[in-house]
Amino acid sequence: MPASLVSLLLRSAADHPGRPAVGLPGEEPLTYSGLERASAGVAAWLAERGVRRGDRVGLLLPKSVEAVVGVWGALRTGAAYVPIDRASPPQRAALIASNCGMSALLASTEASAAVEAIRAARPGLPVLLLHGAGATGVPPSPVGPLPSPNVRDLAYVLYTSGSTGVPKGVMVSHGAALSFVEWAAARFELRPADVLSSHAPLHFDLSTFDLFGATLAGARLVVLDEETVRFPMASAEALETERISVWYSVPGALRRMVRTARLSDRKLPALRTVLFAGEVYPADELRALQLALPPDTALYNLYGPTETNVCTYWRVPPAGTWTSPAVPIGIDCENCEGVVVDPELRPVPEGEAGELLVRGGTLMEGYWGDAEATARSFVADFLHPHLSDRLYRTGDIVRRQPDGTYAFHGRVDHMVKVRGYRVELGEVESALLRAPGVAEAAVVAVERDGPGGRETELVAFVSGEGPDPGRERDLRRHLAAHVLKYMVPAEIRFLREFPATSSGKVDRQTLKALASCPESASSAAPASQTPSGRSPGETT
Asked: 419-522, superfamily in CATH?
């Protein structure tokens, strides 16, 4: 195994310095030697201002070549990079900076409010502007030797939403990141001739495959900036004109390209692998994607929370050969092992549902500055008691099927009680997604005043065909045939499009806010009710 992620860049720069490394669609890419020099310059600037091995360097940058340079520059000082969602309120950005003890910040001129909030929280913090009209620029070459991080050092800290309202910093070491990227490069046969898309924002763990997988293989990375990601037509255009061979994104991005960007009309001879992760892909829409892509394109569903990166995968069978109503999350990755347990953490019999626990080399170190949350998330590895390994509690309910794949059933924390009955929201959503004409579905629980006091009610949101006078009736009939009576939502609301977080996932916080309002008051979509919408405190 390489000593660190930095070794991947240094090796590619030495082996093929003139090969294209990273660029925006339609622009001249930076070569590997150019990326190495630029990142060394950023590292030198940081080192001259006191950043040392083990420190944390914030990134408040749009998706850009400069952001990629910033990631490598931070890593080359031995520090961990901490990407901040640019859509975060300034107060949240400042909270993250304080929480992780940020030592320096790489930012853009467009993020002035957040930069000032961070500076107020961290007086004297060095700030290097890498993007925008007033960008500072960096030294052309390093000053003095740069440290060599090792596999135990932290590589990055990704902040996700915390149940208490305080963001949780997921700490990932170089060793864990390498365990994932080396597995992925081998499994998906990444090679120098590949062109990888960089679709996910840097604060979303999907981005680590793009950044480090491309560098390990010596391949070219095409950075899809925020404008390209916002518009499905622009994303599809980049997929075609840049001859992208390996694509990785949330399902929502692919579904929008199929629906609105005439993906089936594109010439995509270079595309060989499409990966998706982050949320459920409705089976009928996945089959539609297969029909829109070249027939020899390999599709994979990848699963794993930020704390584990990818821990299971499923290769989609050829079009026309599978009729499953739901998409499995697959089998354990070769560098991970899962076990399904009951609430008392006892392994369940084969075929029964329970919480998925995971062990392996990709696990996080823990949550920054939160020993209690870290302790709650891990249990001793009872699978291998002679080792000191830990099992991570994913909080996801799964069932191992007869073919060895896991079926996903929802979240432990999506279990609610309705009139005394336990209801898994994911089960209701799955039933809705099986209804004809439903493109997306989400169910939230809200508290409302009833005859007996405060009561929990379910509100379902769907997009696709409708609404029309008979549409809700048809959906209720469909649900009555697939779920128990008490699981049928009190309301079914229709949206043109679902609100999305900046990671591209369904924004459940906005849906819950909509559900808490009378339907007439929520009929107009909020600003975040677009594919490019953001919400504060989103989870990845």
From this structure: ANL, C-terminal domain (3.30.300.30)
Classify domain 337-409 by CATH number: 2.30.38.10
Q: Reading across the β-sheet that carries 438-450, which strands appear in turn?
A: 438-450, 453-464, 491-494
Least confident span in 247-256, 314-323, 341-350, 384-393: 384-393
pLDDT, tens only, 151-160:
999 999 999 8
In the predicted structure, residue 136 carries a pLDDT above the cut 80: no
Is the pLDDT confidence value at 539 over 70? no
164 CB-near residues (< 8 Å, 6+ apart): none
CATH 3.40.50.12780 placement within the chain: 5-230
Question: Six-digit token pair at 239?
Answer: 């997929």
The span from the CA of 303 to the CA of 39, in Å, is 31
pLDDT at 142: 57
CATH of domain 5-230: 3.40.50.12780
Q: Which two tokens stand for residue 411?
A: 């979240």
- Check residue 417 and give left, alpha or beta (phi > 0: left; psi -120 to 50: alpha): beta
Long-range contact set of residues 88-92: C-beta below 8 Å, sequence gap at least 24: 88/114, 88/536, 89/536, 90/114, 90/116, 90/117, 90/118, 91/117, 92/167, 92/536, 92/537
Dihedral of the CA atoms 392, 397, 400, 406 (nearest 10)? -80
Measured distance CA(505)–CA(540) in Å, rounded: 8
pLDDT at 165: 56
Q: How far apart are CA 180 and CA 305, in angstroms?
A: 13
Distant-in-sequence, close-in-space partners of 331: CB < 8 Å, separation ≥ 6:
312, 313, 314, 404, 405, 406
Q: Phi, psi (5° rounding) for residue 275?
A: -115, 145
Computed over every residue of the chain, the mean pLDDT equals 89
Residue whose C-alpha is closest to residue 327's, from 483, 434, 487: 434
Residue 425: which of 438, 406, 409 has the closest Cα?
A: 409
> Cis peptide before 305, with omega less than 30 degrees from 0?
no
Q: What is the pLDDT of residues 349-401, one digit of tens each?
A: 999 999 999 999 999 999 999 999 999 999 999 888 888 789 999 999 999 99
